[in-house]
Amino acid sequence: MNLDHATVRHIARLARLALPDGELDAVSADLTQVLHLFDELQTANVEGLNPLAHPLDVTVTLRDDAVTETDRSETLLALAPESQGGYYLVPKVIE
User: Fold this and answer.
1) How does pLDDT run across 15-55, given as a tens digit for each residue?
2) How far apart are CA 29 and CA 20, in angstroms?
3) What string of H, E and C letters represents the secondary structure of the chain?
4) Is 43 in contact with 23 (CB distance < 8 Å)?
5) In this prediction, what percent of the chain has a pLDDT beyond 70?
6) Where are the domains of the chain?
7) How far is CA 86 from CA 4, 71, 94, in A?
8) How far is 27 from 46, CA to CA, in rounded Å?
9) Left if phi > 0, otherwise alpha if psi is -120 to 50, otherwise beta: which for 85?
10) Do 86 and 73 touch, CB atoms closer than 8 A?
11) Contact of 2 with 31, CB cutoff 8 Å
12) Are 1 and 35 contacting, i.e. CB atoms less than 8 angstroms apart?
């Protein structure tokens, strides 16, 4: 499938890309190659293959879900110019 200039311009407009007229031939050739690659992939025999989430056999080592930090909220609130009820008070900026 070869893409004409009108189709390439339409695709560029949909993708919100500014495409100079001098690049239409190159972009058209590149898009045509991509479409041919998809056609080749469509013909691949995938019968009996299981889908993969990752191409490598990777396992994730999980760590224990344990609290490692202490509650420092009071210390941090003490640094603020104003606080109330555990929240920082800031000046009103929107009327």
Assistant:
1) 999 999 999 999 999 999 999 999 999 999 989 988 877 78
2) 15
3) CCCCHHHHHHHHHHCCCCCCHHHHHHHHHHHHHHHHHHHHHHCCCCCCCCCCCCCCCCCCCCCCCCCCCCCCHHHHHHHCCCEECCEECCCCCCC
4) no
5) 100
6) 5-42
7) 63, 12, 22
8) 31
9) left
10) yes
11) no
12) yes
Name the nearest CA neighbour of 5 among 15, 16, 13, 21. Answer: 21
Give this prediction's pTM. Answer: 0.51
Q: Helix count (H) and strand count (E) of the chain?
A: 3, 2
pLDDT, residue 54, reads 77
Our CA angle for 12, 13, 16, nearest 5°, is 85
Residue type, 17: L
- The number of residues in the chain equals 95
Q: What are the structure tokens assigned to 26, written together?
A: 């190159």
- CB distance 52 to 33 below 8 Å: no
- Of the chain, the end-to-end C-alpha distance in Å amounts to 59
Locate the DSSP E strands across 39-89: 83-84, 87-88
Residue type, 94: I
Identify residue 88 by its one-letter amino acid code. Answer: Y
